[in-house]
Task: inverse folding
């Protein structure tokens, strides 16, 4: 028999050709792999959320293999001696067994919880980046709205997950949720009764939350994340203004191989960070909380951090009960239903509100530096100050205890701070933006400060400035136009010193090989007047 | 007329007795009643009064004498002579018992640095022996709760259920102020429930028995001595000796507050630097 000749070099080609002939994959794949993504560290913040979601799916699947979402009372017979013999729900028992009996179970549970906190934290940080750079402007308004809904879904996923182990802390959270439902006028009692299947806590809620937590909410998250990313692909990623970057192009790296490699590496980094935290820091020690009993409420019973702002609003609310005839509206209704509703749905409409206010109907693919839009920065600073004060107030008993402050003083500080500090934050951030703008213009008009002081014959001292562009007949720089991007402000940035130390986080301080202003040629070493020590 | 009926006669008899007796007779009657009442009171007192307290002045034991010395030097300005208290400065110590001294003085809370919402724990001013002497003195002033002799916690090896029962009692009775992890918590207006991490069994027992500062009293009919010992076993074994799995740091056991701080200070910080690093490599 004759041996068949196999050309190893040709093997991948023939295989790929075979795939293409069957699935016609080459054209769409080429478009995908050649897709260009702009590169900036702040564009990676949203990826942290995506990657923590993947970790949540992986660890979550592991947890479902051992969790029993039942409220049947069983005696605990496991290895944790401090609860042995205690009657508890099967959900709590299986969570304990998951932690103590299953190999690696506690680590997985802690990873799941830390990944959930990281998911929400990175959503907020990513959202701040989008907001302060104006990335939500036309045509990306819908993606901003989807992002807000993703936060809301994450909020619900977090809350249902927090409730599942049925321990003392999660039961307290459920009790608060039921109280919030009950506070809604007219429909409250029916709403609570239908969700809990009768009087709180009933014996259905864990099963219902379980299906919401492992199927409905993750399904919604997965669908919306797909749309979110699909829109980024379709509408293309925004980019910073800068050399060769315009409103109609995208400058960056191709999807394959560099961008994909970087993303793969970043996923590993996120995974590693979550695993590190899960291994080092204890989170939610359910075995100390005991099974849920309505009579046991611990001090420092807080929700996870992303729900804490609501808890804080409730704590700060004065006890104003409103009576209308036979009905009453409890004070809890305002912060927990109206406040939470307004704070999570209101921001969805921000892109349209801003566009209406400014009358801006243009398409924006270039980002805006925060300093170039002081009013937006001011409003963002105001919103975040409010959010931070509400969140801190959610933990005000812990702060009061550990820093030896009166709890009553903390409450009043929160109430007053909530009204006084946001406008102050608005004012300060607007002034900072204007100051930074001013400084940029100054450098463009006069050049970079060299640190060289020259004494004139009449005794006057002047600082020598390095012009960034051409000079007129008297040697004065011709003012440059601002290009919406970083203005070099250090001599190193314009090539005064050869880079000596290799940058770890940044590429080496390279001279701006690019126009610092539209219409100006790139600066290169030879064109510039040499800086001397000041003596001619 | 009704005066001839039996009822009318009774009425007559009654009204005759209500007629005013002579002055001398009234005086005599009063004197007789007075003597009788005095004799009764004196007789009952002699019959029931404990002989020891009848002696004046009070005889203090040798230990209490030492304690009185310390008391007169360090405590008297607020708690007054013989522990009778001073208005707006310090409460009376009659009847608070030696367990109270064991807690307040043994943990350094007394003498207090200044008048404030609650006495802070600090380095004890008196050593163990002096605390015992002070306790004995206060005990002899007017009785009160005392620490029982013997071990104040159960041996987990001999009595393995003690820790689970103690945990249950801890969650019912203690967590609402001291929190699930024993990390302590805030009360209103600057008052607080202290952390239990370095509390000794004696301190905890004395605290339950006497209800110091803002803590309620858990007397022996609320929590039996056995139940108190079980709670102490739980605190000692589970919360203090760190049998708590789940990593190297428990973030203070303050619940989701510190977990939220950790995710930003550790998680987000690491990843922002990572993204700076990755984006820097273009």
Result:
């Amino acid at each position: 028999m004759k041996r068949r000749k196999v050309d190893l070099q040709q093997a991948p080609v023939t295989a790929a050709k075979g795939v293409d002939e069957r699935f016609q994959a080459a054209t769409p794949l080429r478009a995908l792999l050649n897709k260009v993504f702009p590169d900036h560290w702040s564009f990676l913040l949203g990826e942290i959320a995506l990657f923590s979601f993947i970790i949540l799916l992986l660890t979550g699947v592991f947890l479902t293999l051992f969790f029993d979402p039942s409220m049947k009372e069983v005696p605990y017979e496991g290895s944790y001696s401090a609860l042995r013999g205690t009657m508890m729900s099967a959900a709590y028992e299986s969570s304990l067994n998951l932690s103590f009996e299953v190999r690696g179970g506690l680590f997985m549970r802690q990873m799941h919880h830390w990944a959930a906190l990281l998911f929400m934290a990175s959503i907020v940080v990513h959202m701040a980046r989008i907001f302060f750079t104006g990335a939500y402007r036309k045509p990306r308004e819908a993606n901003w709205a989807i992002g807000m809904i993703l936060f809301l879904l994450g909020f619900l996923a977090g809350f249902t997950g927090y409730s599942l182990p049925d321990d003392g802390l999660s039961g307290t959270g459920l009790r608060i949720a039921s109280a919030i439902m009950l506070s809604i006028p007219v429909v409250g009692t029916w709403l609570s009764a239908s969700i809990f299947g009768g009087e709180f806590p009933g014996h259905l809620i864990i099963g219902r939350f379980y299906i919401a937590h492992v199927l409905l909410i993750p399904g919604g998250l997965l669908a919306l994340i797909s749309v979110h990313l699909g829109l980024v692909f379709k509408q293309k990623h925004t980019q910073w203004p800068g050399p060769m970057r315009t409103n109609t192009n995208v400058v960056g790296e191709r999807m394959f191989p560099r961008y994909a490699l970087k993303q793969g590496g970043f996923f590993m980094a996120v995974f590693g960070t979550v695993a590190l935290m899960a291994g080092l820091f204890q989170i939610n020690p359910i075995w100390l909380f005991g099974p849920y009993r309505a009579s046991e409420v611990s001090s420092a019973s807080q929700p996870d951090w992303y729900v804490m702002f609501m808890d804080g609003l409730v704590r700060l609310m004065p006890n104003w009960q409103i009576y209308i005839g036979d009905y009453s509206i409890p004070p809890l209704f305002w912060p927990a239903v109206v406040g939470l509703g307004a704070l999570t749905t209101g921001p969805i409409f921000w892109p349209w509100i801003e566009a209406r206010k400014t009358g801006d109907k243009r398409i924006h693919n270039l980002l805006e530096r925060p300093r170039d839009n002081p009013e937006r920065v001011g409003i963002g600073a105001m919103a975040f100050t409010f959010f931070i004060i509400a969140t801190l107030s959610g933990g005000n008993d812990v702060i009061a205890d550990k820093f030896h402050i009166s709890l009553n003083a903390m409450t009043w500080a929160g109430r007053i701070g909530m009204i006084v500090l946001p406008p102050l934050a608005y004012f300060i951030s607007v002034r900072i933006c204007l100051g930074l703008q001013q400084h940029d213009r100054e450098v463009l008009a006069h050049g970079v400060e060299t640190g060289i002081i020259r004494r004139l014959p009449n005794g006057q001292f002047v600082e020598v400035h390095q012009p960034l562009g051409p000079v007129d007949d008297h040697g004065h720089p011709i003012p440059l136009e601002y290009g919406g991007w970083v203005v070099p402000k250090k001599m190193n940035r314009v090539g005064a010193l050869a880079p000596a130390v290799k940058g770890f986080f940044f590429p080496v301080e390279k001279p701006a090989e690019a126009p610092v202003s539209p219409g100006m040629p790139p600066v290169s070493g030879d064109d510039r007047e040499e800086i001397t020590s000041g003596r001619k | 007329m009704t005066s001839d009926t039996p009822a009318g006669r009774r009425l007559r008899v009654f009204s005759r007795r209500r007629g005013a007796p002579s002055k001398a007779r009234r005086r005599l009657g009063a004197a007789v009643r007075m003597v009788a009442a005095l004799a009764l009171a004196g007789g009952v007192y002699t019959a029931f009064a404990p002989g020891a307290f009848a002696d004046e002045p009070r005889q203090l034991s040798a230990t209490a004498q030492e304690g009185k010395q310390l008391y007169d030097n360090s405590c008297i300005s607020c708690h007054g002579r013989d522990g009778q208290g001073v208005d707006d400065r310090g409460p009376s110590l009659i009847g608070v018992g030696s367990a109270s001294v064991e807690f307040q003085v043994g943990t350094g809370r007394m003498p207090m640095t200044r008048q404030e919402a609650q006495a802070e724990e600090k380095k004890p001013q008196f050593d163990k022996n002096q605390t015992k002497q002070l306790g004995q003195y206060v005990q002899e002033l007017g009785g009160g709760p005392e620490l029982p002799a013997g071990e104040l916690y159960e041996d987990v090896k001999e009595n393995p259920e003690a820790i689970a029962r103690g945990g249950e009692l801890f969650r019912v009775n203690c967590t609402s102020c001291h929190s699930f992890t024993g990390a302590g918590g805030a009360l209103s207006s600057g008052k607080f429930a202290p952390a239990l991490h370095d509390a000794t069994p004696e301190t905890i027992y004395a605290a339950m028995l006497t209800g110091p500062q803002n803590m309620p009293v858990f007397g022996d009919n609320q929590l039996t001595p056995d139940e108190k010992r079980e709670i102490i076993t739980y605190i000692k074994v589970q919360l203090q000796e760190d049998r708590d799995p789940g990593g190297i740091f428990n973030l203070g056991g303050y619940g989701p507050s510190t977990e939220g701080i950790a995710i930003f200070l550790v998680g987000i910080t690491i990843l922002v630097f990572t993204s700076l690093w990755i984006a820097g490599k273009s």
Observations:
- Strands of chain A lie at 36-37, 73-75, 87-89, 253-254, 322-324, 327-329, 448-455, 461-466.
- The first strand of chain A starts at residue 36 and ends at 37.
- Confidence is low (pLDDT under 50) at residues 518-536 of chain A.
